[in-house]
Automatic annotation (TrEMBL):
Function field: Repair polymerase that plays a key role in base-excision repair. During this process, the damaged base is excised by specific DNA glycosylases, the DNA backbone is nicked at the abasic site by an apurinic/apyrimidic (AP) endonuclease, and POLB removes 5'-deoxyribose-phosphate from the preincised AP site acting as a 5'-deoxyribose-phosphate lyase (5'-dRP lyase); through its DNA polymerase activity, it adds one nucleotide to the 3' end of the arising single-nucleotide gap.
Domain Polymerase/histidinol phosphatase N-terminal: 340-419
InterPro entries: DNA-dir_DNA_pol_X, DNA_pol_lamdba_lyase_dom_sf, DNA_Pol_thumb_sf, DNA_pol_X_beta-like, HHH_MUS81, Hlx-hairpin-Hlx_DNA-bd_motif, NT_sf, PHP_dom
Phylogenetic lineage: Bacteria, Pseudomonadati, Caldisericota/Cryosericota group, Caldisericota, Caldisericia
UniProt cofactor(s): Mg(2+)
EC numbers: 2.7.7.7, 4.2.99.18
Keyword DNA repair part of the UniProt annotation: yes
Alphabetically ordered keywords of this record: DNA damage, DNA repair, DNA replication, DNA synthesis, DNA-directed DNA polymerase, Methylation, Nucleotidyltransferase, Sodium, Transferase, Ubl conjugation
Domain Helix-hairpin-helix DNA-binding motif class: 51-70, 91-110, 126-145
Pfam families: DNA_pol_B_thumb, HHH_5, HHH_8, PHP
Protein species of origin: Caldisericum exile (strain DSM 21853 / NBRC 104410 / AZM16c01)
Reaction it catalyzes: a 5'-end 2'-deoxyribose-2'-deoxyribonucleotide-DNA = (2E,4S)-4-hydroxypenten-2-al-5-phosphate + a 5'-end 5'-phospho-2'-deoxyribonucleoside-DNA + H(+); DNA(n) + a 2'-deoxyribonucleoside 5'-triphosphate = DNA(n+1) + diphosphate; 2'-deoxyribonucleotide-(2'-deoxyribose 5'-phosphate)-2'-deoxyribonucleotide-DNA = a 3'-end 2'-deoxyribonucleotide-(2,3-dehydro-2,3-deoxyribose 5'-phosphate)-DNA + a 5'-end 5'-phospho-2'-deoxyribonucleoside-DNA + H(+)
Highest taxon in the source lineage: Bacteria
Protein name in UniProt: DNA polymerase beta
Domain DNA-directed DNA polymerase X: from-to ranges: 1-316
Amino acid sequence: MRNKEVAEKFYELAEVAELAGENPFKVKAYLEAARVIENLTIPIEDLAKEDKLDGIKGVGKSIAEKIKEYLETGKITKLEELKKVVPEGLLELEKVKGLGAKRVKILYEKLGIKNLEDLEKAAKEHKIRDLEGFGEKTEQKILEGIKSLRDKRTDRFLIGIALPIAESIVNLLSKNTPIEKHMICGSLRRMKDTIGDIDILVTSKNPSFVMDYFVQIPFVKEVLAKGDTKSSIITQEGIQVDLRVVENDSFGAAIQYFTGSKNHNVRLREIAIKKNLKLNEYGVFRLDDNAIIAGVKETDVYEALDLDWIPPEMREDTGEIELAMQHKLPTIVDYKDIKGDLHMHTKYSDGANTIEEMARKAISLGYEYIVVTEHAKALGVAHGLSIEEFKKEKEEINRLNRKFYPFKIFLGVELNILSDGSIDFDEKDLDIFDLCLAGIHTGMNQSESAITERIKKVLQIPKVKIIVHPTGRIINGRSEYSVNIDEIFREAKKYNKIFEINASFERLDLSDVNARKAVYEYGLKIAIGTDAHSTESMNNMRFGVGVARRAWLRKEDIINTKSLKEFEEFLREV
Ligand code: DGT
Ligand code: CA
Ligand code: CA
């Protein structure tokens, strides 16, 4: 599915068009198209194939043509043309927090600022504060924004972008070339939150056919190398993909080698040597006579080293090898263990789908329940609901619960932890909710002690059960706010509170490291929620489970592995 990718292109088009001084209606139309495409539940490439693009709300003929052009050629001519008239550095300026196209234009026209360096210089020389609509505070924010952009500048890709691309490529290969086995390896198989490049391994009796096909698939922007059994391309998004065809007899050893991590593999090779064996990407060999003793299957490779097979997500050399030696690896949670999604938004607030649509999606995913959690109405928080509106939502949920029985929808809420550590509603109003989540959405620039105190205060509210996206990070976007996570975890244990792994792939918060700490050092429980704003993003659960597996979490550590019956019992205790 290429929806996300196409949507990004239109966001880019809108930005560039605005900077180029295009008609504001056009800019708005591009933005609207981007938003709609992002939330589509059907693959946009399917709609294009069936010539149904202009049936999408917000997509007219000219936008439909642009989508088609992009899907077929990887380019939008209009965007390329506009880029020629906009100085290159301006596009980067827009990535500075707090600067939109409008402000970038003013900075360019009034002060001739064309790039980050110009911007930093002007801010330091206090030239920006005197511009209309800017001021001293904005100037300060701009300097902070430049710093955080530089800190975060990275060429790693979000797993939620990289994994669908890898899967699409494997699908294309399966359909159109004679491949037999296949495996997506590297950091993707280990479910890391960001991905340097994509590593795909296949077996085939006709490697040259596979290579010829691979270098001309629609994803390709550039072919870096083409060989008999290995080729590398760069996709439209700029991600490198390495494809290797390996021998069937070595497939297990090869996927073991190319899954990594490097540190894990280094340790394994040392263990092999001690056993008078040699381990490489072709197999496990006896040093005495060079006879191969494992290679076809990955499990055999581990067995040859007297180790239990280790799940890829654990292969970081952080203790897993020792446990595999002693046959004491924990049984980590599986995607199939997930019985419900605890965090989502619907049309009642800023979601794209109705409660009924979210419920149907959940049923199709095999869940037994969901918790619908709109934002609450704190001052200044957009799309929040009042208690009255929640009561209406509750009525609809009751109606739907009769319809979908035994599947169950619960009424939850995502409360805001305000700057002083209070929440949106009076505690007595919270009784209508089955489950209360709370998270920080504003005031993230406070000091470490202020933010820590805010969260600690909320932990004491009996009805609040789960702290969502606990560190506030946006991967490649915004760093975590400063918070003393140990202090929070310690305090939370006193009140039996739960922390979320937010499965949205821009967040993945708690991170693998923090989730492992929460459970293994503080004995806390975890909830995995997608924070979905559309049925499509409910699919992100697998990324949350990936984090949980990287954190070594077991089924019993995660509350939404409970059956509906157990979950209802748990809610009664809340
Ligand atoms: P990435 O792509 O930066 O997100 O991380 P990985 O882990 O996918 O790393 P990558 O793509 O460089 O290599 C894939 C795997 O192949 C890596 O996890 C372990 C193995 N590997 C690659 N190069 C080496 C190497 O020079 N030494 C060892 N021991 N293993 C390597
Ligand atoms: Ca890689
Ligand atoms: Ca690689």
